[in-house]
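Q: How do we represent a protein-ligand complex in a form that can be generated token by token?
A: Start from the inputs.
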Amino acid sequence: MKEEKNKKENKESSLMEKIVSLCKRRGFVFQGSEIYGGLAGTYDWGHFGVALKNNIKQSWWKKFVDGRKDMYGVDAAILMRQEVWQATGHVANFADPFDGKQFNTMLKTQVGAGEEATTSYLRPETAQGMFVNFKNIIDFFHPKLPFGMAQIGKAFRNEIAPRDFLFRQREFEQMEIEYFVRSDDWEKYFKYWKGEMLDWMEEVGIDMGKVYELEVEDADRAHYSKRTIDFQFDFPFGRNELFGLAYRTDFDLKTHKLEYIDEEKGEKIVPHVIEPSMGMDRAVLALLLSVYTEDEKDGEIRSYLKFKPSIAPVICAVSPLLKNKLELVEYANTKVYAPLKAEFGRVAWDDNGNIGKRYRRQDEIGTPFCLVVDFDTLKDDTVTVRDRDTGKQERVKVVDLKNYIKEKII
Ligand code: GAP
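Then emit the structure tokens for the protein with glycyl-adenosine-5'-phosphate bound:
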């Protein structure tokens, strides 16, 4: 039994190492300030990592903002007046135990010079940027309850022990919604948002067999929450929080002395808040762990990222079979790459090494389709389309390529 457990632990820790090394090797994620020895808890995103994050953000924004009538987008400043964090209790309570004392994990900074200088904090959650804009949304749109505000942006925490790659960082991104409801309706919408969050996780390709719901105990909940569910994920380093769903009551709006005129009831009320909160970086990590696959091809182990085409950083790579044959390069460049690049953006040109090497490289990036222009192309205007997952190849007419790919993205 013990041996089995050790084996599983070794396999899991080597999975983490494989993911970290693939992310570096293929230009997804690098240690922050790496050439100066690294700054713990910070990471820099490379070309494919940015593309992956953008696709995840886009899918979130599309589902929760553009796809709905009742949601308003916000992009608030990261720096806020210190009074915000005093009012919300973050100055007093946002702390972790360190050396027997409570250590506040907000990152403090100075705004302005000399006598004008004031203390400010880099926001530890994007949420407050929305609450302080509540009145702007009310005055501008006069929304009826229930309605929500949504924001994607950076958050900062001076974590005492950043660890596990993207899991616990000092600078990270959140995708948060504050959904305003009448107090009587909170349970209904809490349940509703639980379903929406699960749907979205599945949509981006997170392995739902590794997701668990944890009812957070009274003592472990944030000071503002009356009920919290953590969506946990089976990470190689253990089951831990992926996202959170909280019932923040009327805590924040009351704190900021904000209210709402309920025309239906003909009175002033303070709406209650359901908050689906998702960490972008943990979403990326859970997704990488979900899609990382190894199989055997031609007696060799190959590793690849089985991203859905809608999320993959590169939708297709275009290659001339031989890079020193001008006719092939010219055709591939002008008739295949250029029009697809103009249409989809995330299209790669890959003429480095032999075809086998190119496939392996694109597999590791998670590119669903490799398009190869060969000598037959010059005769019949078709290209080879090679499928990442099955390795199968088919000939597709160049004129049909746009539609072929469009159908796969949906
Ligand atoms: N506004 C609510 C809030 O901030 P939280 O549970 O403290 O709640 C929400 O954070 C999400 O942000 C987490 O579920 C996680 O995905 C992400 N997150 C929190 N701390 C993080 C860190 N140090 N590094 C990376 N992601 C983090």
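The chain has a mean pLDDT of 96. The first helix runs from residue 2 to 25.
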